[in-house]
Amino acid sequence: MSSADRPASNRPLSPHLQVYRPQLTSVLSITHRGTGIFLSLGALYLVCWLLAIAAGPEAYAQIAGFNASIIGRLLLLGWTFSLFYHLANGIRHLVWDAGRGLDLKTTYATGWAVVAAAAALTVIAWIAAYAVR
Amino acid sequence: MADFRSPLARVRGLGSAKEGTHHWWAQRLTALALIPLTIWFVISLISLSGADHAEASAWIGSLWPAALLILTIVMTFHHGQLGLQVVIEDYVHNEYMKIGAIVLVKGAALVLSVVAIAAIARIAIGG
Q1: End-to-end CA distance of chain B
Q2: Separation of alpha carbons B76 and A62, rounded Å
Q3: Alpha helices in chain A (DSSP H)
Q4: Which of these, A5, B11, B62, B90, has the minimum number of CB atoms within 10 Å of its CB?
Q5: b/e per residue, A9-37, with b = 16+ CB within 10 A?
Q6: What share of chain B is helix, strand, coil (3-state, %, to 5)?
Q7: Does B76 touch chain A (CB under 8 A)?
Q8: Which residue of B49, B52, B53 is in closest CB contact with A132?
Q9: Shortest CB distance from B46 goes to which of A39, A84, A129?
Q10: Cβ proximity of A75 and A41 under 8 Å
Q11: C-alpha dihedral over B65, B70, B74, B77, to 10 degrees?
Q12: What burial letters (b/e) apply to A98-132, b meaning 16+ CB within 10 Å?
C-alpha cells in the first residue's frame, strides 16, 4: 500500500530524522542517551584506574601519565561534562516522572537550565581540580 | 469489558511483558541513589587530582571512601546496564544479536563491578 492510498489520519507521526528539524527537546533527549553510553565507557575506565592502583606504583604512574596527556585530559573533560549533564537532565527526568514540568514552556526552561548547569559545573570542577594540584 | 485474566495474573499485575514496572523502577531507584553518590564521587576525584600512588591508595583504603566507592560502583553498573539494555532493544533488531548483546552487557556489568570491588579490597588490605 503506497502512502497515497493511506487514509488521512490525525495521529502523530514519529520523527523522521532526515527531515525533522532538531529542537532543544529532541537534542537534549538524544544527548542524554549519548552521554549515558559514553559514561558506561567512563565506568570501565574507573575500573582500570582502580586496578592500576591495586597493581602498584608503576601501573599507577602509567595511568596517571595517560590522564595528564592531551587525549587523557580530553576524555576526562568529556566524562566530567557527560556526568554533570546526565545528572542534571536525570533530575529533570525524575521531576517529569513525578508528573511535573511537562508543559512546553517549563520543558524549554528546564532544558536550558540543564545545559547551563552542566557547563557551569564542568568549569567549576576543572578550576577546582587545577587549584588543588 | 470481560476480564480474561486469572485471579493470580490480576493480583500480580505484571501484564503481558511479565515484568511489570520492575525495569523502570530499578532505573529510577538507582538514579536517585546516584545523585548524592555522583556529587560525592566528583568532589573526591577533584581532591585526588595530582595525587601520587600512596595518597590515592590511602584514600581508597579508608573505611568510608571504600564503602561509598563500592556503593557508587554497584549503583553505576546496575544503572548503566539497565540503560544500555534499552539502547540495544531500540536499535538492534536481529533477535539473536539483541539477546547476545544484552547478555554481554549484563555479564560485563556484573564482572566489572565485582572486579572493581576486589580491587578496592586489595588496595584496602594491601596498603
Answers
A1: 68
A2: 25
A3: 24-55, 57-68, 70-97, 104-132
A4: A5
A5: eeeeeeeeeeeeeeeeeeebeebbeebbe
A6: 80, 0, 20
A7: yes
A8: B49
A9: A129
A10: no
A11: 80
A12: eeeeeeeeeeeebbeebbebbeebbeebbeebeee
How many CB atoms lie under 10 A from the CB of residue A42?
18
- B34 at A interface, C-beta within 8 A: yes
Q: How far is A46 from chain B (nearest CA, A)?
A: 8
Chain A residues with CB under 8 Å of B56 CB are 53, 60
Q: Is ipTM over 0.90?
A: no
| Closest among B54, B100, B10, B122 to A50, alpha carbons compared | B122
Total-model pTM: 0.88
Of residues B35, B36, B27, B30, the one with CA closest to residue A87: B35
Cell of A43: 565506568
Residue A89, Cβ density class (10 Å: 0-12 exposed, 13-18 middle, ≥19 buried)? buried
Cell of A56: 602498584
Interface probe with A: pick from B46, B79, B85, B104, most Cβ of A within 10 Å: B46
Sequence-ordered list of residues with C-beta below 8 angstroms from that of A20, at least 6 positions apart, any chain: A26
Q: What DSSP string describes B17-69?
A: TTSTTHHHHHHHHHHHHHHHHHHHHHHHHHHTTT--HHHHHHHHHSHHHHHHH
Q: Per residue of chain A (133 residues), give pLDDT as tens.
A: 455 566 667 777 777 777 888 899 999 999 999 999 999 999 999 999 999 999 999 999 999 999 999 999 999 999 999 999 999 999 999 999 999 999 999 999 999 999 999 999 999 999 999 998 7
